[in-house]
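In this notation, each integer encodes one residue's backbone shape. One such record reads:

___
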Amino acid sequence: MRKIIVLLLIFTCTFAGCKQPDPYLNYVSEVRQEIYEGTADSAKITAVYGFCETPYLNDGKTGDIIYGLTFRLHIVPDETKRVIKFTNGDREYSAPFILDEITSEYRATVEIKADMEKEFAAALIIGDTTVPVVFRSIVPDKCITYETALKALENKQSALLNSYMKDGNFSAEIYMRVFVKDGAPYWYIGIAAGNDRLKALLIDGVSGELLAVRDII
């Protein structure tokens, strides 16, 4: 009976088609898949959703993954306390904006794993004042997903990816970030092999065509 079941499974996968998991997905240590923009009190706020390994290191290995939404407030630094709040599903999230001393940019990060909408409402609390903000995605609907972008890379750069294989294992980690320029989406893909070695690739966000490749050391 057991042999019959095995044969049936083989037959089903061969002739009906079994979708195999993408082996390289396990080596993706960063994805920025959605970009939002909003305005509050004449100040521009951007937000990026995705996941990232923690700690974030170019060591050629994928660490623990954390999903999050990171807000950036573009203002001249001052002493006013600011907090971002929003609701997703039945849960409310909030985070204070903290000044990055290196970039002089305010950031607030909320740990969240969810199916993010293309638009969502939030509130920016400035001292004792609450200002409503509507965040809208600037990533076009026609943009391919990071999974599709990765599959496109595999199809067009299989020799490159195979060059990182050692003893049957992929000896690098993959960074993927969507961005939009002049209304057109693109995927940046970085292959990090450790010791700050990085192969950077640019892929068209609609067609999946490879546009550029360069080494960054």
